[in-house]
Write the structure tokens for this entry.
Amino acid sequence: MDQVLTTIRVEEEILKQILQILRRMTSDWDTGFAGEVGLDTYLVADLNCESLDIVQFVVSLEECFGRRDLPMEKLLMVDGRYVDDLRVRDVVDFLYKHLNS
């Protein structure tokens, strides 16, 4: 039970940091997104991130978590092709896996 609670708390902290980064990045954007940014928010479809924004987001994640060695290509690419979009949940899952390995 303690392990489950620890996992939930770590994932919640990762989510909190990601949401802070996204709020900073998009604070002056007119995204047209009316909902609350959460786990099922898409970076491109919902927040209108462009490729340069994704690069900035990745750099912000590396700085926030103090890790420049994260295999970001595993998040951004599948079968040698860049993914079309990412959900916040995808980023949380990726960071949880790689920050704890």
Summary: The beta strands are 77-78, 81-82. The helical segments are 2-26, 51-65, 72-76, 88-99.
